[in-house]
Amino acid sequence: DTAVSQTPKYLVTQMGNDKSIKCEQNLGHDTMYWYKQDSKKFLKIMFSYNNKELIINETVPNRFSPKSPDKAHLNLHINSLELGDSAVYFCASSHILSRGYNEQFFGPGTRLTVL
Amino acid sequence: GIQVEQSPPDLILQEGANSTLRCNFSDSVNNLQWFHQNPWGQLINLFYIPSGTKQNGRLSATTVATERYSLLYISSSQTTDSGVYFCAVVNTGANSKLTFGKGITLSVRP
Q1: Are residues B43 and A111, on separate chains, in Cβ contact within 8 Å?
Q2: Are residues A103 and B33, on separate chains, in Cβ contact within 8 Å?
Q3: Rounded CA gap, A65 and B52, in Å?
Q4: What mean pLDDT, rounded, does chain A reach?
Q5: Torsion of CA B78, B83, B89, B95, to 10 degrees
Q6: Which pLDDT value is given to residue A102?
Q7: What angle do CA A54, A57, A59 make, to 5 degrees?
């Protein structure tokens, strides 16, 4: 199936731990994103990569480090997890805006719970 | 940055009823999308509609970019339409970043 996939779907961990979330897309897109959905369902951009280059870096603590090994993959590593990091993290992909059409498609989300 | 306001915040419908969901935005946009977040948390693309009108089955959407609003119409609502509807925009010059509204929670009662 053509899609955006994320692993894991659920992640439960202790404060202070380090964890990673992986994302892959097979839609042939050149741009990938991480969004965070908080407990009030508000969605906000965190990062975006275009062809492995960081193009959006919102005001996110530097404990969050995205890495894009190639344009089909974007991973999110989080160091020293805090209670406030509990949220649902969504990966998305699209063509770059300059190509004129950049509908974004979202993965199923990763629900992170920090205890 | 651009502001995205959705109304009403909550909506309860009887199955079979029609409804209109509104999205206002404060600046020019290159992209506008409507999403449905179902009760399982999936974000489903409904429309990519920076301008004009589109229809898909019982759903249709209209964006009037010059007046900075978009409308999502749901006709003959079904219980499976329940969930949260998000409008999201890319501000002109904002480098593909989608800015989301707070969403409209729709409950369709049988």
Answers
A1: no
A2: yes
A3: 39
A4: 93
A5: -130
A6: 87
A7: 165
Strand-by-strand arrangement of the A64-70 sheet: A4-7, A19-25, A73-78, A64-70
Q: Residue A56: its pLDDT value, please?
A: 87
Residue with tokens 């339409």: B81
Report how far residue B78's alpha carbon sits from residue B48's, in angstroms, rounded to the nearest whole number.
22
Report yes or no: A103 at the B interface, CB cutoff 8 Å.
yes
A4-114, what's its fold? Immunoglobulin-like (2.60.40)
**CATH T-level assignment (fold) for domain B4-109:** Immunoglobulin-like (2.60.40)
- pLDDT-derived band at A96 (thresholds 50, 70, 90) equals confident
The sign one gets for the Cα dihedral A55, A40, B38, A82 is positive
Give the mean pLDDT of B90-98: 84
